[in-house]
Amino acid sequence: MKDYLYKDNCDKFPIGMAYVPWQQFDGIYDNLEKAYDAGTVFPELDKPFKGRRCCS
Question: Could you tell me which residues come within 8 angstroms of residue 23 by beta carbon, excluding any fewer than 6 positions away?
Fold first, then answer.
């Protein structure tokens, strides 16, 4: 098995950056069944996937 954790390879990759917007706490779902379906109790984190498949 090849060891990909060599420190020699780190110079070949750029440094990654992340953007994490500030989130406001607006409360939690009153309906726990809806929260379970959404996967979160926080409505502001309920972001359904609306993408499409990359293959036809």
Answer: 44, 45
